[in-house]
């Protein structure tokens, strides 16, 4: 389970939130998330593939030149995992950082909690 949890954390960071192409992002969401997934972020709770896709796409549009970079190694414990990350222009210090915490069910992300250390610019 820990290998899959690690994979989900890293792929989510790059293929969902770091992906600018809507078709590739949607394909990743369908592969990585349960249909009834829930995303918990400071603006609110978003449930299901459509809501997650819209949130991730809208967020990406606010800073399309930013890259998401893992900070440290992913950790897994039973059906949960966490990964610290930073976001900012490629090759520069991150403009904000955070931690993703996921709950895994049947090999997919059932819930994602995003803790931000600093607000996006």
Automatic annotation (TrEMBL):
Gene3D superfamilies cross-referenced by the UniProt entry: 3.10.450.50
Domain SnoaL-like, chain residue ranges per copy: 16-111
Highest taxon in the source lineage: Bacteria
Name the record gives this protein: Nuclear transport factor 2 family protein
Source organism: Dyella choica
Organismal lineage: Bacteria, Pseudomonadati, Pseudomonadota, Gammaproteobacteria, Lysobacterales
């Amino acid at each position: 389970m820990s290998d899959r949890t690690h994979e989900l954390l890293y792929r989510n960071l790059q293929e969902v939130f770091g992906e600018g192409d809507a078709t590739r992002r949607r394909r990743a969401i369908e592969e990585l998330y349960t249909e009834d997934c829930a995303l918990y972020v400071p603006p609110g709770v978003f449930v299901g593939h459509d809501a997650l896709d819209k949130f991730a796409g809208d967020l990406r549009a606010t800073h399309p030149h930013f890259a998401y970079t893992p900070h440290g190694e992913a950790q897994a414990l039973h059906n949960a995992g966490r990964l610290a990350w930073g976001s900012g222009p490629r090759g520069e210090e991150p403009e904000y950082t955070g931690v993703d915490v996921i709950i895994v069910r049947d090999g997919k992300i059932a819930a994602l909690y995003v803790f931000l250390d600093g607000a996006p610019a």
